[in-house]
Amino acid sequence: MIRVIQRYDFSAAHVLARAEWSAARNKAVYGKCANPAGHGHNYSVEIAIEGELDPKTGRILPEGKLDDVVRTKVVRTLDGRFLNRDVPAFAAAVPTAENIARHIWDTVVRDVSPARLVGVRLIETRNNSVEYAGGEELP
Amino acid sequence: MDFSASYRDASGATSGHNYELEVTVSGQVDPKTGMVIDLKELKELMEREVEARFDHRSLSDDTPYFRDRPPTPETFAALIFSLLDAALPKGSLYRIRLSPTSQLSVEVTR
User: What is the pTM of this model?
Assistant: First the structure.
C-alpha cells in the first residue's frame, strides 16, 4: 500500500466564539482564542492519499494534480483570510482546528481520484494539530 | 537515515534531493534482550541495502532499478520497501517513510 503525504502552508486569522453566546460564555469555553479582534496562525496541512501506482507515470495521481486541487481550492481560499468572515463554511461552524480539518477534507475528498483521501492533518501551532480521516459532517 | 541522490525525470531534467528515510519494524519483544530488533543491526542493514546503493548516486544512471519505471517518490519508496523486506527477518518490516523534501513523504506498508 502506498500513501503519499504532501504538506501545504497557509496563514489565516480566526476567532473562536459563537455569535449567540455571551462574551463571558465564549471566554469561558475558548479562553483567549475568543478575543473578537481575532488572532492568526501559520497553518500547515498534510494531505494523505492512497492509491495504486500507475506503472507508466510511477505515481498514484498524475503529476501536479494534488497541488492544483489543494492550492486552488484550499490554500487560495484560506490563505490571508479572516476565516470567520471570509470563508462561508465558517459562518455556522466555529473555525477550530477540528472544523478547519473537516472543511479541508470536504473540499478535496472528491477531487483526488483515482487515489483516495485517507487523512487530513491540520497543524495549527507546533503544539497542536488535528488529524481527521473523514466520516463526520460540518455543523 | 539521510542520504542524497539524483535522478532524471520524464522530461530528461536532472534533479536531486536529500532524502530522509524512516524504517519501522514490528514484532515480539525478545524476552532476553528486551528488543524487537537490534538497532545496530537494523542500521547496518539500512546502510547496506539503501545507503550503499543510492547515496550520492544517480538513481537513473548508476542503478539498474529505473530502466523500466520512472524514478518517482512512489516507485523509489516501493523499491526501498522491497529491498528492506527481502533483507529483514520475514514479515518484520512494518512501514517505510521516504521524504524527498520536508513537504512530501511517501509511506509504504505491506
Answer: 0.91
Question: What is the fold of A2-132?
Answer: Tetrahydropterin Synthase; Chain A (3.30.479)
Query: Could you give the 3-state DSSP secondary structure of residue A129?
Result: strand
Query: In chain A, whose CA is at the least distance from the CA of B70?
Result: A58
Instruction: Give the number of other Cβ atoms within 10 Å of residue A24's Cβ.
Output: 9
A6 part of contact set with chain B, CB < 8 Å: yes
Chain position carrying cell 495549527: A124
A3 touches chain B (CB under 8 A): yes
Please tell me the total count of domains within chain B.
1
Residue A95 CB burial class (10 angstroms; 0-12, 13-18, ≥19): buried
Task: State the complex-level ipTM.
Answer: 0.90
CATH of the domain at B12: 3.30.479.10
Out of B10, B71, B105, closest to residue A5 by CB: B105
Mean pLDDT of successive 10-residue stretches along chain B, which has 110 residues: 94 94 96 94 97 97 95 97 97 98 97
